[in-house]
Amino acid sequence: MKTRLLSLATILCAFGAFNVQAETVADALEKCRNTDNSLKRLMCYDSVAKSLNKYEGSDAQIEQLQAYKSNNGNQMKPRPAPVAQGQVQASEPKNDFGLEHKRDLSDEASEIAVTIASIKKNVRDKHVITFSDGSIWQQTDGTYMKLKEGQSVAVERGLLGAFFLSVEGLNKRMKVKRVK
């Protein structure tokens, strides 16, 4: 009886092994995409990213991605924009902070520390701030923040091209954009 049961279990396991297919990365991502709950979907994507090596064909896909990045990385960098008459081309990366829509951001700073040279208000009662490095930034939200000339502030990069001005010691940030 025990030998029959053992042989039956062995046969069932053997047939079950033939039906199991290794899941590819695309199948795993599709399963995650079909999850309705956003938190569970995010957790699913995170688990796929953490365990890429367990999926069939993942090594080839990772090699393709790395080859694509290395081949296209040098070709896809934008050329510097021509300098119009009367404009000065900035040579330091700090002078270009906020003007990244025209170049590659992979190795750029995410925050700069500057000193306020002058503050004005525009017709819509928004701050227009000139920093000591010559860059001019304008407030884009309605946040109230008491700023004064000579004060040290930080401008940091946010998501989706946003920039935020913050003062050390304050738990507040003002959304800004670079004008010049």
How would you describe this protein?
The chain is of the alpha+beta class and 180 residues long. It contains 4 helices and 6 strands; from the N terminus they run ααααββββββ. A 6-stranded antiparallel barrel has the order 1-2-3-6-5-4. Strand 2 and strand 3 form a beta hairpin. Helix 2 runs antiparallel to helix 3. The radius of gyration is 28 Å and the shape is elongated. The relative contact order is 0.09. About 3% of the residues have low confidence.
* Portion of residues within helices: 25-40%
- Please write the string of helix (H) and strand (E) elements: HHHHEEEEEE
User: What spatial order of strands do you see in the largest sheet?
Assistant: 1-2-3-6-5-4
Largest sheet: 6 strands, antiparallel, barrel
How many DSSP E strands? 6
Give the structural class. alpha+beta
Contiguous helical run count: 4
Which band does the percent of strand residues land in?
A: 15-25%
The outline comes out as elongated
Low-confidence stretches: 74-79
Mean pLDDT rating: 76
Radius of gyration: 28 Å
Terminal Cα separation, in Å?
87 Å
Keywords summarizing the entry:
elongated, 6 strands, alpha+beta, 31% helix, six-stranded antiparallel beta barrel, 4 helices, 180 residues
Brief digest:
The protein is of the alpha+beta class.
Write the layout of secondary structure elements.
Elements: H1 2-19, H2 25-33, H3 38-50, H4 58-73, E1 111-121, E2 127-131, E3 136-139, E4 152-157, E5 163-166, E6 173-178
Antiparallel strand pairs: 1-2, 1-4, 2-3, 3-6, 4-5, 5-6
Helix pairs in contact: 2-3
